[in-house]
């Protein structure tokens, strides 16, 4: 299944995506949660109810609704330097660069999350705005100390993340968090694809375009640490909860390592496609003079 969060004149709620339409499952099962975290916490029972509801629920055209980020996570964790080709690229471009021997994690604050087609703000304080196409894992069960071999059981599905980065702010501090957490700098979507539809997350192609120019083209087979190994590592330290999002890293082709660097400017359209999931597209604008972030 493809799980979506969408809104229209009736407000935000959960649906399913199929055949270029959104199936409004709550229209026939009003007991279903309207929030994705609540839905995921219901586990297989709610997935089964959603399947039943979908058989008779109305279908809405995409032009009549707005897709939101499929989930507003409680934690958005991101792994850096996780592709062999990216490591080789950094070694070639950065003097004395030494790849880390362990997983390197940082937080993207959850206020950075936005949805498909939502604008990405170029911040007032920097012009070093960059893209990173990434596979994202969505956790489906509260868990701790999960062995890699058991990780599939706690995965709700997969989505696309654009790990938008403000490079000068990112490099200013060891944690990277400030440069990774500007508002609108974590587009997610367009939906969550359940594991029965994306069976092997370690064998999908990721491509990123800017204004139709292909900038990134790589396979998750090149990851240093697999999705399962990430879950094992993180869950040694912290409880993972339904709706938590894990961004699994990016590979070669970012703007910062081009010679000279090519950063995003207002008007740029960034499109990320992941095989088996779909496409996430967002346009860059200048940060509005008055910007207020609102979340439910």
CATH topology of the largest domain: Fumarylacetoacetate hydrolase, domain 2
Class of secondary structure makeup:
alpha+beta
> What number of domains?
2
Helix and strand run: EEEHHEEEHEEEEEEEHHEEEHEEE
Portion in helices = 10-25%
- Low-confidence parts: none
CATH class of the largest domain: Alpha Beta
Overall 3D shape:
globular
Largest sheet: 12 strands, mixed
Number of helices: 6
Q: Could you report the average pLDDT, rounded to the nearest whole number?
A: 96
User: Span from first to last CA?
Assistant: 25 Å
Strand content: 25-35%
What is the CATH superfamily classification of the largest domain?
Fumarylacetoacetase-like, C-terminal domain
Would you spell out the secondary-structure blueprint of this structure?
Elements: E1 2-7, E2 13-18, E3 21-23, H1 36-41, H2 43-54, E4 59-61, E5 66-67, E6 76-80, H3 84-93, E7 104-107, E8 113-114, E9 120-122, E10 129-130, E11 133-139, E12 155-162, E13 165-166, H4 167-172, H5 177-180, E14 186-193, E15 205-210, E16 213-219, H6 227-235, E17 245-247, E18 269-274, E19 278-286
Parallel strand pairs: 6-17, 8-14, 9-19
Antiparallel strand pairs: 1-2, 1-5, 1-14, 2-3, 3-4, 6-7, 10-13, 11-12, 11-17, 12-14, 15-16, 15-18, 18-19
């Amino acid at each position: 299944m493809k799980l979506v969060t969408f809104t229209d004149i009736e407000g935000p709620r959960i649906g399913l995506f199929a055949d270029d339409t959104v199936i409004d499952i709550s229209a026939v099962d009003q007991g279903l949660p309207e929030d994705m975290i609540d839905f995921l916490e219901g586990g297989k029972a709610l997935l089964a109810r959603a399947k039943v509801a979908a058989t008779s629920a109305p279908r809405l055209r995409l032009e009549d609704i707005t897709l939101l980020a499929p989930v507003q996570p409680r934690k958005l964790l991101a792994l850096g330097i996780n592709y062999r080709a990216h490591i080789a690229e950094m070694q070639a471009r950065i003097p004395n660069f030494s790849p880390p021997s362990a997983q390197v994690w940082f937080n993207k604050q959850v206020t950075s999350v936005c949805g498909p087609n939502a604008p990405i703000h170029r911040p007032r304080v920097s012009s070093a705005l960059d893209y990173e196409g990434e596979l994202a894992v969505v956790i489906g069960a509260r868990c701790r100390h999960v062995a890699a071999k058991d990780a599939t059981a706690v995965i709700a599905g997969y989505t696309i993340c654009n790990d938008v980065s403000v490079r000068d702010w990112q490099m200013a501090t060891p944690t990277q968090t400030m440069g990774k957490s500007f508002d609108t700098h974590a587009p997610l979507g367009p939906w969550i694809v359940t594991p029965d539809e994306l069976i092997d997350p370690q064998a999908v192609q990721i491509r990123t375009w800017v204004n139709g120019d292909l900038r990134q083209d790589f396979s998750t087979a090149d990851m240093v640490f697999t999705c399962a190994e990430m879950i094992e590592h993180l869950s040694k330290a912290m409880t993972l909860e339904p709706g938590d999002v894990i961004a699994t890293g990016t590979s070669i082709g970012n703007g910062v390592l081009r010679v000279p660097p090519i950063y995003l400017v207002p008007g740029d359209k960034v499109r990320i496609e992941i095989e088996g999931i779909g496409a996430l597209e967002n346009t860059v604008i200048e940060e509005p003079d008055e910007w207020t972030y609102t979340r439910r």
